[in-house]
Amino acid sequence: MSAREQILQRLRQRHGGEIAVPETDFSVIADREWSAAEKLDRFQKMIESVHGEVHRVSEEDWLDTLADILQSRSARNLLVPLKHAIGRTIRDADRPDMPELLGYDTAIEHWLPKLFNDVDAAITSTRGAIAETGSLILWPNADEPRLMSLVPPIHIAVLEADQIFATFHEAIALQRWASGMPTNALLISGPSKTADIEQTLAYGVHGPKELIVIVIGAE
C-alpha cells in the first residue's frame, strides 16, 4: 500500500467511511444581476481606480482613437500581432498617423533585446473582462505571447464591450474554460505596481507603466 493510500485509509477510518464532499454554493460570487451598461461602468471605474485608462469607441472609430493615443505619447513604434485580426486591421489600414509597426517575425529568443530596449508600445486582443474586479482576461499564444503585455512601457488592450462579465465565475462558466485552457492565462488589473516594506504603492516600476483599454462597441 502506498503512502497516499495509507493516509486516505486513515482518514476514512477516522470519519467512519468515505468522506462526504459538501455541496458548493457559488451564489455569493455568481449572483450579480448587472446590465451590460452597469458592467461596463463598473469595469471602467475599477480599472481607472488603479491608474488604468479606458476609451469607449465604435467599430469604425477605434483606429482613430489608437492613433491619437500613440501620438499623444510620442510612441516611436507599436508591436502588433501578425495573425490576429487586430494586427491585420492595423497593417491593412496603412495609416500615415501610425508609428512604425513591429511584429514577432522571428523566434522570441531573438526578439528579447529589442523587446526590452526599443519597443515603446504593444497592442493585444483580450478574451474578455471582469467587471467586479476591473480585470482583463488574456490567453497568450504564439501570435500574442505574454511578453507583449508584460514588457513594453505602454500596453494597449482591445476589448469587445459584449465580452465584459460580471464576475470571474461568470467568465469561466460562459466561456467554458473547463473544456480547455492555454498554458498561460493572464488576469490584468491595471499597470504594473509594487509596494515597499513601508507599504507605499508605486506604479510603473517594472513592466507596463500604462494600461490603456480600447472598448469597442461601447460608444
Describe it for me?
This protein is an alpha/beta fold and 219 residues long. It has one domain: Rossmann fold (3-Layer(aba) Sandwich). It has helices spanning 3-15, 27-30, 36-48, 62-72, 85-93, 108-117, 147-150, 168-174, and strands at residues 53-57, 77-79, 100-102, 121-125, 128-130, 135-138, 154-160, 164-165, 186-188, 193-195, 201-203, 210-216. The strands form 4 sheets. The chain has a 4-stranded parallel beta sheet, with helices on both faces. The longest helix has 13 residues, at 3-15. The radius of gyration is 21 Å and the shape is globular.
Arithmetic mean of pLDDT: 87
Going by CATH, the architecture would be 3-Layer(aba) Sandwich
Tell me the helix content.
Answer: 25-40%
Q: Could you give me the name of the CATH homologous superfamily?
A: NagB/RpiA/CoA transferase-like
Assembly classification: single chain
Largest sheet: 4 strands, parallel
Strand content: 15-25%
The total count of strands amounts to 12
Number of helices: 8
N-to-C terminal Cα separation, in Å?
64 Å
The best one-word shape is globular
Reported by name, the CATH topology is Rossmann fold
Assign the CATH class. Alpha Beta
Number of domains: 1
| Uncertain spans | none
Q: Kindly report the spatial arrangement of strands forming the biggest sheet.
A: 1-12-7-4
Rg from alpha-carbon coordinates: 21 Å
What descriptors fit this protein?
alpha/beta, Rossmann fold
